[in-house]
Amino acid sequence: MRRLNERGIRHDVELIQRLGFTYTLLCSEVAITPEENAQFTAWARDTAGQGLGLFFHAAFGTLSENIEAVKLAEKAGADLVLLSYPPQFWPTSEQEIYDYTRLFCDATELGVMLFPIPLWGFERVHPAGMSVQLVRRLLNDCPNIVAIKSEQGFPMPGGICEMYHHFRDEVVISCPIEYDAIPLMSLMKLQFSGTSNTQWMGDYYPRAFDLARSGQWEAAMEMYWKVNPARQAGGAAAQASVPGTNVLNRTVWKYQDWLAGFNGGPLRSPSPRAPDRFMKGMRQGLVASGLPVTADPDSAFIVGRHPC
Question: What's the pTM value of the predicted model, to 2 decimals?
Answer without folding.
Answer: 0.95
